[in-house]
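User: Predict the complex with pyridoxal-5'-phosphate.
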Amino acid sequence: MKSALRYAGVKSGDSVMLPSFICRDLLSAVAELGAKTVFYEVDTALKPMQLDPKISAKVIVAVNYFGFAQNLEPYNEYCKQTGAIIVEDNAHGFLSRDENNNLLGTRAKFGITSFRKSLRVQDGAILTTSLNDHEIDEQLDCIDSPVSKRNNLLRLLPSFESRTKIPFVAIGQSMSRAIRLVRTGSALPKPDPNAETTIPGLANPHLQSVAVLEALDEAQEILRRRNLYQVLRSQVVATGATMIFADLPDNTCPYGMPVYANEESRRKLAKVARQNRVTLMSWPDLPNNTISTAPGFYKQVWLLNFQ
Ligand SMILES: Cc1ncc(COP(=O)(O)O)c(C=O)c1O
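Assistant: Here is the predicted structure with pyridoxal-5'-phosphate placed in the model:
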């Protein structure tokens, strides 16, 4: 995201408009350029409530939440009136397309796709731009050192899981949360105090992440994700949770199944996740500045993650 903002001309003192329903880590890309974040709210369908042209920004970020195409029309309208540039945040939408069969992440001048979220790899994201090669930096060198043992294990587990029908990943996740709860008093990792200001680690991807990306059978992966979505539909509704996207449009490759759930439904969803050998995750921490004013439904979002 930092590179996309930089290529879009974001400089110190500029404003970048982000939805307030966003993971707080993304703010570090804005902060590292010395720019300011301005928030707009989204509704329960995760579409912008209002993009006010009186609030100007150098860049406006449109998010394809969970791989479902965001309608870019209101964003185009906002840009027409303000001169802002759209960055399409397709962190969740690897392989997904919109109703016109356009690949998500390629529909604006700049797009990012965080394929590390969809594949079991340690790192890796794609920046898409309509700029010419001579206007952008060279591809970053890959890190040619072994990836973490945890990551290697995660990549091997799907075939064990489908052979044994045992949800190793979900069990492992429950165990590590229980251990963390005993050790630290919190089942989830403590928020990083620097998450909104500093991007951790190197931007370079591991060689293995790129190799996994290149070896992927994309058609098969899209089919797997779409089938899972259909299989889970009735099970999820039976928990009392509400699907955020009731329809699965033809070209959508879902990151997972996002739902609104209260505590009771959440417990039932955890069981559905184990039975279907997927994991259940909460939305990452919201930005500090938006937590106190965020609509209640932001905090009820859960994801059955198809990774
Ligand atoms: C909508 C959205 N955009 C961007 C990011 C950041 O992606 P990455 O962690 O791959 O930099 C996230 C992280 O969760 C996200 O949810």
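The radius of gyration is 19 Å.
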